[in-house]
Amino acid sequence: HISPKMNSLIVIFGFLFISTQIVATTESECPEICLAIYSPVCEEAMINGKLVRCLFSNSCEAGRSACLHEINWRQKEGKCETSPDHLCRQYLSSKNITSKVS
Questions:
Q1: Looking at the chain, which terminus has fewer C-beta neighbours within 10 angstroms, N or C?
Q2: Quick check: is 80 in a domain?
Q3: Under 8 Å CB-to-CB from 24, ≥6 apart: which residues?
């Protein structure tokens, strides 16, 4: 029989192990996944001479897109008038990005 204290330690170490596996990457790799926490960030970048503005579900997703597509996204403060959907979709790192026609 495992004591409640030991059971708690097992759960904590299991959680820590899983958490480190989720965010663990080497310097040459992009994060594979981001936690599904909705904390939207508006990011913009000049791409092929055009200002593209996209709304990501969180900063991890924006960072993952930047890494995968080698884009220098910059966070935009204030109202986020996003670019047309087709412009953001191509920089999609997962389904956690949205765009609206402005």
A1: N
A2: yes
A3: none
